Amino acid sequence: MFEQLNIDELKKFIKDIFVIVMSVFLISSFVAQPTTVEGNSMLPTLYDADQLIIEKLSLRFTPFERYDIIVFPYNNDRSKYYIKRIIGLPGEVIDIKNGKIFVNDLELNEPIQLDIIKDLGTQDYPITIPEKTFFVMGDNRNHSRDSRYVDVGLIKEEDVIGKGFFRIYPFSNVGFLEIED
Fold first, then answer.
1. Which of 82, 94, 143, 155 has fewest C-beta within 10 Å?
2. Catalytic residue among 56, 84, 147, 163
3. CB burial class (10 A; 0-12, 13-18, 19+) of residue 2?
4. What are the structural domains of the chain?
5. Active site residue 84
């Protein structure tokens, strides 16, 4: 009933499986990978259990920009990953006063409406951001563990796993993660 596989067919089958496995590995390592949002620190932009594609390719070719959504490992437990928005770029001075963010002494006028900041965290302000480092915050400003806390701190460019790129679930919110500047 079953035909016996000849050696050439078996070699081809093993080669095809190898190519598929390597392709998946290379794509998820260097191009893009799925991730799930855990928690509410990025509300109203991202919700708990949202499914995203983070892209990795542009990390090597394009500079990071303010408002990019990035994924990075948590300093105290590198098996945990955080997803936050870049607020401060290298060389800038960040301060938080009267519930507002200041970059180089100018109030940051964000393109989305967010709560006034009540939680300054554990950092001392103002903070000067070193080269190849970012100050990040969750959009849910009063319920986010981010660069305002010493244990999260400033995020090194080399630690960024990828940029939030595209929401694939829930289906009602499928689309690119873009913010108008």
1. 143
2. 84
3. exposed
4. 7-170 (2.10.109.10)
5. yes
Please spell the DSSP secondary structure of 135-147, one letter per residue.
EEE-SSGGG--ST
Instruction: Tell me the two tokens of residue 179.
Output: 């913010």
Q: Record the tokens describing residue 50, joined without a space.
A: 């949202």
| pLDDT tens digits along 112-136 | 888 899 989 999 999 999 999 999 9
Token pair listed for 75: 């300093």
Q: 166 and 175 in contact (C-beta within 8 Å)? A: yes
Q: Which of 11, 15, 23, 41 is catalytic?
A: 41
Q: Facing residues of 101 across strands?
A: 96
* Structure tokens that stand for 34 in this block: 């799925």
**In 3-state terms, the chain is what percent helix, strand and coil (to 5)?**
20, 30, 50
Distances (CA, A) of 156 to 45, 98, 130, 140, 153: 23, 28, 9, 22, 9
Any catalytic annotation for residue 172? no
